[in-house]
Specification:
This protein has 99 residues and is an alpha+beta fold. Helices cover 25% and strands 40% of the residues.
Length: 99
């Protein structure tokens, strides 16, 4: 695994509060090759939420919200696995919202 990756998650930059464990769970889904956290933006969001927003050329784009901030997260996923990975993330996201 390249430098800055641990448990499939790139750790060169910061994460939102509470995002590290869910990203590790996402990285463990079969078919997910890399999890790359992106930019963090200020927002008026409350609570914690992760959802898949769209497909990209190399995989999927997620948006994570946590107490006043939003972070983009990019996944590298093969085209054949994207729909299944998307569904699995949606199921996990429901569990994270309950806890």
């Amino acid at each position: 695994m390249p430098k800055h990756f641990k448990r499939g998650v790139k750790r060169e930059h910061h994460f939102l509060k509470g995002l590290e464990k869910p990203l590790e769970e996402i990285a463990s889904i079969p078919g997910v090759k890399k999890v790359i956290p992106g930019r963090i933006y200020a927002s008026d969001s409350r609570g914690f939420e992760i959802k898949v927003t769209r497909e990209t050329q190399t995989g999927l784009k997620l948006v994570a919200k946590s107490d006043g901030s939003v972070q983009e997260v990019f996944l590298v996923v093969d085209k054949a696995d994207r729909e299944r990975v998307w569904r699995e993330i949606e199921m996990l996201a429901e569990e994270w919202e309950k806890s």
